[in-house]
From TrEMBL, chain A:
It is an enzyme of class 6 (ligase). Belongs to the GatB/GatE family. GatB subfamily. PANTHER family: GLUTAMYL-TRNA GLN AMIDOTRANSFERASE SUBUNIT B MITOCHONDRIAL AND PROKARYOTIC PET112-RELATED, GLUTAMYL-TRNA(GLN) AMIDOTRANSFERASE SUBUNIT B, MITOCHONDRIAL. One of its GO terms (biological process) is glutaminyl-tRNAGln biosynthesis via transamidation. This is Aspartyl/glutamyl-tRNA(Asn/Gln) amidotransferase subunit B. The keyword Ribosomal protein does not apply. SMART domains: GatB_Yqey. NCBIfam families: gatB, PRK05477.1-2, PRK05477.1-4, PRK05477.1-5. Heterotrimer of A, B and C subunits. It catalyses: L-aspartyl-tRNA(Asn) + L-glutamine + ATP + H2O = L-asparaginyl-tRNA(Asn) + L-glutamate + ADP + phosphate + 2 H(+); L-glutamyl-tRNA(Gln) + L-glutamine + ATP + H2O = L-glutaminyl-tRNA(Gln) + L-glutamate + ADP + phosphate + H(+). It comes from the Bacteria.
Automatic annotation (TrEMBL), chain B:
It comes from the Bacteria. This is Glutamyl-tRNA(Gln) amidotransferase subunit A. GO terms for molecular function: ATP binding; glutaminyl-tRNA synthase (glutamine-hydrolyzing) activity; transferase activity. GO terms for cellular component: glutamyl-tRNA(Gln) amidotransferase complex. SUPFAM superfamilies: Amidase signature (AS) enzymes. It is an enzyme of class 6 (ligase). The gene is gatA. The active site is at K76 (charge relay system), S151 (charge relay system), S175 (acyl-ester intermediate).
Amino acid sequence: MQWETVIGLEVHVQLATRSKIFSGASTAFGAEPNTQACAVDLGLPGVLPVLNEQAVAMAVQFGLGIHAEIPEVSVFDRKNYFYPDLPKGYQTSQMYEPIVGPGEVEILLDDGERKTVRVHHAHLEEDAGKSLHEDFHGMTGIDLNRAGTPLLEIVSEPDMRSAKEAAAYLKAIHSIVTYLGISDGNMAEGSMRCDVNVSVRPKGQEAFGTRAEIKNVNSFRFVERAIEFEVERQVELLEDGGKVVQETRLFDPEADETRSMRTKEEANDYRYFPCPDLLPVVLDQAYVDHLRGNLPELPAAKRERFQNELGLSAYDAGVLSASRAMAEYFERVHEVCGDAKQAANWVQGELSGALNREGLAIADSPVSADQLGGLIVRVIDDTINGKAAKQVFQALWHGEGGGENNSADAIIEAKGLKQVTDTGAIEAMIDQVIADSPAQVAQYRDAEPDKRGKMIGYFVGQVMKASRGTANPQQVNKLLKEKLDALC
Amino acid sequence: MHDQTLTGLAAALAAGEFSSRELTEHLLARIERHDGVLNSFITVTGEQALAAADAADAARARGEAGPLIGLPLALKDIFCTRGVKTSCGSKMLDTFTAPYDATVVEKLAAAGTLSLGKTNMDEFAMGSSNENSHYGPVKNPWDLGAVPGGSSGGSAAAVAAGLVPAALGTDTGGSIRQPAAFCGITGLKPTYGRVSRYGMVAYASSLDQAGPMARSASDCAHLLGAIAGHDLRDSTSVARGVPDYTEGLEAPLSGLKIGLPKEYFGDGLSAEVESAVREAIKVYESLGATVREVSLPHTHYAIPAYYVIAPAEASSNLSRYDGVRFGHRCENPTDLIDLYKRSRAEGFGEEVKRRILIGTHTLSEGFFDAYYKQAQKVRRLIRQDFLDAFEAVDVLMGPASPTPAFDLGANKDPVSMYLQDIYTIAVNLAGIPGISVPAGFAGGRPVGLQILGTHFAEAQLLNVAHQFQQATDWHLRRPDLAEETA
C-alpha cells in the first residue's frame, strides 16, 4: 500500500524581549541559576503578572509577517498542572482567543517548488523553568531563570506531507522571526523548539490517521529524522495489522528513535480558564497599522525582488534571502560592487565555503561585506584576475590588508597582484616562453590544427607562471594563439 | 484613648495631647491584656511599631504634617509584609516570611501610619466566621460566645475591642462587611480595581478587594484615600484619579433616592435584624431621603455562581503551595507525588481543601461549560441587576447579614455557612462598592446596615454612611470588655 504522511508543527519561538512576559526580570541566557527570577517569576504569594508590551508587539509583527488576521481582542488563560519547574502550578497561555489568527507561510522545497502551509493561529505564553537532574544526588535542582520568558507558539495546520516539507516550514518560520528581529532563532539555546504531530494514511484517503505528537525537537535535522523514524514506525505498525495510538512521544537523537512518553488516557486535564489577573488584550487598528508600516522586508518579498529586479536564479534568490544576516550581507556586497551576479557568486561560493569550513555564521565572517565588495570591484574593473582574486580573498580572511573597507586594494598592492594588461609586456613574456620551449613549439607546429587548441594550455601556464599569475589570462590566450599560429 | 476614632486620635496627636509612642504603647498593652482571649492577632509586631511611632513623632516634631502620621493600624494577615510572617491564616504559610510589602502596605507606611501586627482570619480568606483559621477562632468582643464573622474576623474584633483604631481587611464575598456588621464597626469594600491587589495573597482574583475597617465612615474615608489608586503592578487596578473621600462627607442627603431590594428582606432574615435595618432607613427618611422598593431578580443565583467562580480561581491560585519553593513541606517525601500530596494534605485545612476540590471539578473537561461558563453568564446578569437598579435609585440598602453574629460552632454544615453571605456575595460578583455601618443590636449583638452604590461611588457611600453616623450613635457604642478577656 502507498502511504501518505501528514504533519503539523507547533513551533515555540522565544521572543527577544529584554524582560520577561509578565515581570521585569531579565531574559538573558546563561546566568547563574535563579539569579534572574524575581518575586513574580517565583510565584510568591500575592504577586501579579503585568503583560510586557514588547511581547505583544512582537507577536503582532509575526502575525502581520504571515498575513494573518489580528483579532482586536485576545485573552490569556491559565493552563493548570503541577510540575516542580512550573512555579505557580499553572502556565499563563492563550487557549481560546489567541493574539494571532489564521495566516500562511510559503515554503521553498529543494526542487525550487513553492508550497503554502496554513498557520492555524499563534499565541503568547510564558516558558517554565528548568529541572536540573545531573548536579544533585537523589534530588532535582530547579532553575527558574527561564520561567516567564515569553514564547510565541505557532500552530500550523496539518499541511505538510514529508519530513523535508516540515524542515522547510521550520526554516521558513526561523527566517521570518529572525528577519523581524523578534527572536534570535538560536535552536541550540532553545530559542526555537517544536512539537511535531505525525500521522499516516493510505494515499487517497481523506480522513486523517491517528497521530502521535513528538515533543521538544530542537533542530532542523532532528525534525527530519524524528519524522522519518516515526513514519516508518507507524507504517510498519499498520502494515502488521496494528493500530497507532494517540500519544506523546519523545525523540532521542542519540538512539535516533522516538519513544512513548504518555498516552491519551494519561494526558493531563489542564482545566483552562481565563486568567483573572490579566485584562483582555485590546489592539486598536492604529497600533496594528503602525506596526504594519514598520515591518522590514520579509524573506518571501526579498526572494521575489532578488529574482525579478536583480536577475538572480530562483535558487540563488532562495539561498541569499534565507536569513536576514545573509541577505543583508549580500545586499551590502551588491551595493558596493554594483554587480548582483558577481556578488551572489562570491557570497555563495568563496565566502560560504570558508564559513562552512570554519563553522562560522555569516555574522561572524572575518571578511566584511564592504571588503568583499571592494574585492569584487577590482575583479570587475580588471585590476586583478580571478586567480589573484582568490588569493586576495584568502588574505582578507586572515585579516591582512589592514581591516579597512579597501583592504583588498592594500593586499593587491602589497602582493603585486595587479593584473598585467599591457600588450607589449605580455608579448615580451610570450616571446620568452616560445624561445625557451622549442620542443613544445615543434610539437604544436606538427599537430593537426584541430588538436592545437588543447596544446596551448602548456604555453598559457608558462606565461602565467612568468607573470606570477598577474597576466590577464584572456589576453595571454589571444596573443599566444596569434603568435604560435604565425609560426605554423 | 483606645475608644477614639482615627480622626479623633489624629487631632489629639496633632495637638500634642499624647505622642504616637504613648498611643502605641497603650494599644500594645491592651493587646497584651485582652488578645489572649480574643485571639484577633496572629502576629504582633511591637518593636517595629514602637520604632515607627518614634519615627512618626520625630517627623511631626520636624513639622511634617499629614492626617495619618503616627496612627497605629493592623493588617489582615493576607497582606505581604516584608520581614514579617504572612500566614494567611494557614498552616501552609506558618513559616512564610514575605520578602516584600504589598502595595497597600507601602502606601499606608508612606502616609505615616504604623502597623501593630497581623490579624487573624479564615484560612486563605475562606470562611464567614473566622473558625477556619489555623491559629484558632477569634472571639467576638461583644459576646465571647459568638463569632466575629469572617474572613476578616481578626481585624473586625481588634477594632471593636479597642486594640487598634482601624485595620485593613479584604472582601471576596463579604469578608469586610459581614465581620464589620458582627462586631459593630464600619467596613468598606471598594469597587473592584479601586485598590491594588499586589501583595495580597490571592483567594479569588476577580473578586478580591482590600478595604478599610474602622470606627466611622469618616475614618474609612481617610484610609481609602491612602490605599486607593492605580498600581502598575496590578493590571486589574483601574487608572482613575482618587478623589478626596473626606471632602463630600458633610453633603446633605435631601433628595437621596434609596432602593430597598425586596430580595434582601425575604425568608431567612431575622426579625430583629430586619427591624433594626428598617429603623435605620427611617433615619434616612428623616434626613430627606426617599425610599422605594426595587428588585434584583437574580439574587438567588449569586451564591451558586460565587461557589463556582471563587473556588475555580482558588483552585488555580493555590496550586503554587506545592511544598517545592516555600510554605509547608512534608517530612521525608519519597518522591515528587508524595511531596505534593502530603505537603498539601497537611498544609491546607478542611474548608480550603473543599474549595480546591470544588474548583478543580468545575474547571474539568466536561464540566467547564456547565459550571464555570454558566456561572460567568449569571455573573453578568447579576451585575446588570445592579446597573438597572442604579438607573432608578442612588444607593441600595439592606441588612449586611441575615442574622447577628452566631454562636461559635453553630454552623457546622458548610452550605449553611455559605448562606450567611447571601446579601454580600452578589456585590463582589458585580464589582460594586458596599459599606456596612452599625445600626443597632439584636440580642445584644450588633446589626449592620449595608449600603451599596454603583461602580466607583465610594465617595457617595461614605457620605451616606457618615450622615447616618451624625444622626445616630450606634458606631460610638463599645463592647464592655469583661474581666474574663483580661
